[in-house]
């Protein structure tokens, strides 16, 4: 007759529980000590460059004929760093742009929108940008600041006021001390130079951890056309557009309407296809200036025009990706591609739901291949979906097919893939031919550190 296993008595169980309690207490104490040794970077204001920053640093940007720039320390908000950028553009320059669709957009955005495509192009143009204060939600005073700065720049450069475009980025709701910027204008005009794009990229930064630049060159009618752009953006990043300022310059000669058509179309597949935190800014501005000092584009159906469009699109997408790579606290760059949707709009809706899900983003931060959270995001997105048709991939790894975990999927393979800095997540809805790609980043505690004391 087999002996019965003797159950642990009450004293023995209490002893075991005490041992477990001491063990967990010791672990908690060790973890507390580790956390105490980690510096609170945001509190100490120490700048830490994003681990996703371009490995080669800031690119060498070509000089653009007809463009001069200068930067200055105006003390708008920051001390001991440049915070104002002025660009002077040659007569004949045309300017196109896209802007935030926020219902609470800033005075500068509204002013730029009103001026776009108007004014005498033969007089030239200017762009004035400040960081540290967004001049948003500042009422009549905000409009007065924009008007005062436009008039001051116009007077110094001999331009009509409707050819001066201003942008502001930074804290919302505080009056812009525009008199500090005005005081810096004479020095800015004196310092104007064609070789200061890298300095301009730094002057427009806020919580960015590195300056962002991109360039391209393309042959048009046997001549080299040049494109160079800079951007700022790190948080409050979501489509329509993101919290970003982007300035792209080219020497191509092109009509304003033709340039505007290109920029509007390319924005949708670049800056309107990124998200860091799903929050749409009040101040987003993208301006593209063509100085007309280089080769001319006359037939927009020509091979040269198509090549220029591709090159411009590459610069815009490069800058958009850099904004995500500098997402506040980001450690992972993530591309989310949805295929098999009922239409492209549904694919985009689904991809954004995944990209903006805090549960998905924190799982990515923790390198957890939690595909269940992706299923959740698909279900809540509002896109037409069928559980039993759904497929999911992590890079080349098939995770789920036809609504079920793939029989060959191994959790350790998914976990190993999640350790990469660059990740690709694929979702196939099995509903049609619609497709879309959205780029995002993970969500870490560093995001909280940065935004909890942004104004302090």
Automatic annotation (TrEMBL):
Task: Determine the domain of life of the protein's source.
Answer: Bacteria
One GO term in the molecular function aspect is: L-glutamate N-acetyltransferase activity, acting on acetyl-L-ornithine as donor
What reaction gets catalysed by this protein?
Answer: L-glutamate + acetyl-CoA = N-acetyl-L-glutamate + CoA + H(+); N(2)-acetyl-L-ornithine + L-glutamate = N-acetyl-L-glutamate + L-ornithine
User: Active site located where?
Assistant: 243 (nucleophile)
Gene3D superfamilies documented for this protein: ArgJ beta chain, C-terminal domain, L-amino peptidase D-ALA esterase/amidase
Give the E.C. number(s). Answer: 2.3.1.35, 2.3.1.1
Q: Which GO terms describe its cellular component?
A: cytoplasm
- State the top-level EC class: transferase
- What does the UniProt keyword field contain? Acyltransferase, Amino-acid biosynthesis, Arginine biosynthesis, Autocatalytic cleavage, Cytoplasm, Multifunctional enzyme, Transferase
Q: Where is this site: Cleavage?
A: 242-243
Write out the pathway annotation from the protein's UniProt entry: Amino-acid biosynthesis; L-arginine biosynthesis; N(2)-acetyl-L-ornithine from L-glutamate: step 1/4; Amino-acid biosynthesis; L-arginine biosynthesis; L-ornithine and N-acetyl-L-glutamate from L-glutamate and N(2)-acetyl-L-ornithine (cyclic): step 1/1
Chain residues that bind substrate: 206, 232, 243, 328, 451, 456
Subcellular location per UniProt equals: Cytoplasm
What segment(s) does the record annotate as region Disordered? 1-21
What GO biological process term is on the record, naming one?
A: L-arginine biosynthetic process
Query: Where is the sequence biased in composition, kind Basic and acidic residues?
Result: 9-19
User: Which InterPro entries would you find in this protein's record?
Assistant: Arg_biosynth_ArgJ, ArgJ-like_dom_sf, ArgJ_beta_C
Give the positions of the site Involved in the stabilization of negative charge on the oxyanion by the formation of the oxyanion hole.
Answer: 169-170
The protein's role, per its UniProt record: Catalyzes two activities which are involved in the cyclic version of arginine biosynthesis: the synthesis of N-acetylglutamate from glutamate and acetyl-CoA as the acetyl donor, and of ornithine by transacetylation between N(2)-acetylornithine and glutamate.
Return the HAMAP family for the record.
ArgJ (MF_01106)
Q: How does it assemble?
A: Heterotetramer of two alpha and two beta chains.
In which family does this protein belong, per the annotation? Answer: Belongs to the ArgJ family.
Query: What's the name of the protein?
Result: Arginine biosynthesis bifunctional protein ArgJ
């Amino acid at each position: 007759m087999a002996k019965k296993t003797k159950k642990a008595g009450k004293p023995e169980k209490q002893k075991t529980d005490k041992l477990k309690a001491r063990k967990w207490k010791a672990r908690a104490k060790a973890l507390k000590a580790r956390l105490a040794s980690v510096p609170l970077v945001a509190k100490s204001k120490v700048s830490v460059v994003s681990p996703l920053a371009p490995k080669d640093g800031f690119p060498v940007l070509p000089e653009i004929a007809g463009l001069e720039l200068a930067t200055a320390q105006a003390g708008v908000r920051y001390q001991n760093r440049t915070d104002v950028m002025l660009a002077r553009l040659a007569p004949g320059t045309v300017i196109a742009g896209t802007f935030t669709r926020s219902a609470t957009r800033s005075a500068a955005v509204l002013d730029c929108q009103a001026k776009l495509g108007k004014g005498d192009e033969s007089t030239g143009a200017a762009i004035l940008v400040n960081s540290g204060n967004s001049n948003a939600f500042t009422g009549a005073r905000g409009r007065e600041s924009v008007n005062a700065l436009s008039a001051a720049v116009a007077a110094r450069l001999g331009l009509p006021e409707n050819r001066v475009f201003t942008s502001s980025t930074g804290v919302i709701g505080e009056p812009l001390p525009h008199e500090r910027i005005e005081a810096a204008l004479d020095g800015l005009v004196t310092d104007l130079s064609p070789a200061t794009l890298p300095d301009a990229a730094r002057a427009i930064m806020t919580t960015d951890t590195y300056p962002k630049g991109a360039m391209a060159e393309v042959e048009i009618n046997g001549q080299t056309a040049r494109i160079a752009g800079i951007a700022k953006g790190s948080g409050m990043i979501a489509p329509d557009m993101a919290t970003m300022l982007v300035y792209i310059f080219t020497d191509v000669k092109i009509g304003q309407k033709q340039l505007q058509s290109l920029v509007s179309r390319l924005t949708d597949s670049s800056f309107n296809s990124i998200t860091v935190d799903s929050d749409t800014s009040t101040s987003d501005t993208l301006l593209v200036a063509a100085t007309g000092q280089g080769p001319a584009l006359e037939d927009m159906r020509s091979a040269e025009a198509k090549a220029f469009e591709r090159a411009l699109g590459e610069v815009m997408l490069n800058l958009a990706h850099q904004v995500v790579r500098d997402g506040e606290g980001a450690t992972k760059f993530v591309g989310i591609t949805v295929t098999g949707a009922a239409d492209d709009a549904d694919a985009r809706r689904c991809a954004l739901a995944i990209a903006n899900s805090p549960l998905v983003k924190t799982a990515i931060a923790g390198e957890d291949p939690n595909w269940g959270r992706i299923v959740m995001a698909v279900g809540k997105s509002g896109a037409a979906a069928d559980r039993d048709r759904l497929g999911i991939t992590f890079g080349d790894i098939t995770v789920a097919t036809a609504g079920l975990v793939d029989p060959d999927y191994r959790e350790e393979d998914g976990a190993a893939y999640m350790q990469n800095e660059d990740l690709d997540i694929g979702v196939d809805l099995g509903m049609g031919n619609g497709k879309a790609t959205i780029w995002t980043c993970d969500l870490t505690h560093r995001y909280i550190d940065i935004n909890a004391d942004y104004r302090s």
